[in-house]
Amino acid sequence: MKDKLLSIVGIIGGIVSLAFSAFVYKLDVGSTVRQQTYGGDAYTGIQNAGAITATNIVYMNTILRTGLSALLAVIGIHMICYYTMHLLDSSQAKAIVNAAPQQLPAKPADQEYEEANKF
């Protein structure tokens, strides 16, 4: 019972991870800023430095958003597969234990083949 509950919680955790992956991927990363020129050199340099910084931050946010989203998706898929297999394995193991024991054959098939083909 404890294994089954743990597997169900793990599957739900995987689904939540996939949902967060979609949520993270839809987040806004910001917008870039255009470079402009002004009459004075100091204002132009300051504005362009700010524009370059803002653009770099947007690119960094895009990379982080995509990477985190992919990581969450992979973790979610892994959790769903792992705990589903764990849930199926535990239920199949109980079915095998509860099944009636079968009688093993007296001789393996290879021995029967060798005995039948002796010269």
Total strand segments: 0
Put simply, the count of helices is 3
Indicate the structural class. mainly alpha
Major beta sheet summary: none
Percent strand equals under 5%
Computed CA radius of gyration, to the nearest angstrom: 31 Å
Overall average pLDDT: 82
N-to-C terminal Cα separation, in Å? 58 Å
The poorly predicted ranges are none
Task: Based on Cα principal axes, name the global outline.
Answer: elongated
**What is the helix fraction of residues, given as a range?**
over 70%
How many domains, in number, for the residues?
A: 1
Please provide the ordered H/E string of secondary-structure elements.
HHH
Care to give the gist of this entry?
It contains three helices and no strands. The chain has 119 residues and is mainly α. It has one domain.
